[in-house]
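[#protein-structures] MJ: dropping Transposase here for a structure pass
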Amino acid sequence: MSVKITKGNKSDIYIASVFSKGLSGKLFGDKSYISKELFHQLLSNGIPLFTNLRKDMKTYLLDI
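AK: finished. structure tokens for Transposase:
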């Protein structure tokens, strides 16, 4: 488990990419973590990212 408190003006996507290094398992986040680049970066490291979907998003199936 990893926790960090940051200022409100830091991007959640940046923080998630920094924190995911050296971790394993699954990452659960809110809609602020939605990013194709982050999703593919984490998945290539074996970490699936789970978020709620925005109304205009398509769903994707993952093998978990």
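MJ: nice. The radius of gyration is 12 Å.
AK: one more thing. The CA atoms of residues 9 and 15 lie 11 Å apart.
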